[in-house]
Design brief:
With 144 residues, the protein is mostly beta strands. It has strands at residues 29-32, 44-49, 52-57, 70-72, 79-82, 90-98, 117-125, 137-138, 141-142. Strand 2 (44-49) and strand 3 (52-57) form a beta hairpin.
C-alpha cells in the first residue's frame, strides 16, 4: 500500500514485471468553476466525477428543449445513475431550467421571463459524446 501523495505531486511506482497496480480515486460528482478571468465560461460550472468531465448532449434532452436554453440550479442534487451499456457506465442527472428562446435578440430584463421550466437531464462523460448522431453539446453550464 502506498501513501497518499499531496495534491499536485507525482507518485512514483516501481514494481516487478506482471504486477498489478490499482488506482482508486474518489468518484463523488462535483461542480467546478473556472477562474473568473476566463471570460467565456464566467458564471458557468462543469460537472466532474473523479477524473471524468461530463457534458450535456442534445440527444438526452426532452423534445423541444435545446442545449443553449439550459441553466443549472447549483442547489440541486447531482444524482448518480448506473448506465446499461459499456460505453457510459455512469450517468448524472442534473436539475436544470430551460428558458424559452426570444424572438428578438435583446429584451428588457424581467426576472419572471427568464425563470423557465424545470427539466431533468442526463449528463454523460465528455469522451463518449457524439456517438448517437450529430447534435449540440455543452460542458460549461450557465447557472440559473
Amino acid at each position: 500500500m502506498l501513501s497518499e501523495p499531496n495534491a499536485g505531486d507525482y507518485l512514483r511506482v516501481s514494481c516487478e514485471d506482471g504486477a498489478t497496480v490499482r488506482l482508486t480515486l474518489p468518484m463523488t460528482p462535483r461542480l467546478v468553476r473556472a477562474d473568473q478571468r476566463v471570460d467565456a465560461v464566467r458564471g458557468c460550472v462543469a460537472v466532474e466525477r473523479g477524473p471524468l468531465v461530463y457534458c450535456v448532449e442534445q440527444a438526452d434532452l426532452p423534445a423541444g428543449t435545446l442545449v443553449e436554453q439550459l441553466r443549472l440550479d447549483p442547489s440541486a442534487n447531482i444524482l448518480e445513475e448506473r448506465g446499461t451499456d459499456d460505453i457510459t457506465p455512469v450517468r448524472l442527472r442534473l436539475s436544470a431550467i430551460a428558458s424559452p428562446l426570444e424572438a428578438n435578440l435583446y429584451q428588457p430584463y424581467d426576472p419572471a421571463s427568464v425563470a423557465g421550466t424545470p427539466v431533468t437531464v442526463t449528463a454523460i462523460p465528455y469522451h463518449v459524446w457524439a456517438n448517437r448522431g450529430p447534435g449540440a453539446m455543452r460542458v460549461w453550464l450557465p447557472l440559473a
